Amino acid sequence: MGLSDTISSAVETTTGHAGAMGAALATLAQEPGLSIEQLRMPLGRTQSATVRLVDQLVADGHAERRPGRDQRSVAVVLTPKGAEAAARVLASRERALSDAVGALTPGERKALTATLEKVLARITTGRAHADQICRLCDLAACPEPACPVELAARDLQQDSGRAEKEVIRA
Fold first, then answer.
1. Which CATH number fits domain 1-103: 3.10.180.10, 1.10.10.10, 3.40.50.300, 1.10.287.1700?
2. Which of 9, 18, 144, 167 is the most exposed place for a label (fewest CB within 10 A)?
3. Quick check: 34 and 75 in contact, CB under 8 A?
C-alpha cells in the first residue's frame, strides 16, 4: 500500500489532478484511439465517470475525440501536449519505483522481480482485472508477451473456455 500511495502521489503531482487522470494518460499513450468503453475498463470507472475524465483531458488540451470504429463510438487520442504529459506520468512512476528499490542489490532486485511476477499472476482474476493492474505499466519495459499479468489473464480465458466446453459436452 505504501508503494501504491507513493506512485499515486507522484502521478497526481505530475498531472495536477487526483484520481485516474495519470492512468488515463498512460493508457492512451500506449493504446491510442481507445473508445470510452475500452478506456473505462483499465481505469475501473463507470462509463459516465470516464466521459467526465475524457472531458477534462480535452479541456486541458491533452486529448481529442475522433470518430470511432462505428457510428456510436468515439476514439480518444492524445494530443502532443497529452503525449508529453503521459511521458511525465510514466517517468514519475519510474522514479518512484526506482527510489523504492534503490537500496536493493542486483540479486535482490532479480529475486523481487521473480517473486512479484508470481504474486501478480496469482492475483489476476481475469481480463478486466489484468487491464486494471497494468493501467500504469510501462509496456515497453514489460511487453505483453512476457507480462505475468497478461499471461495469467490468457490462461484464465483458456481455462474458462475449456470449462465451457466441458459443460456443453455434459
1. 1.10.10.10
2. 167
3. yes
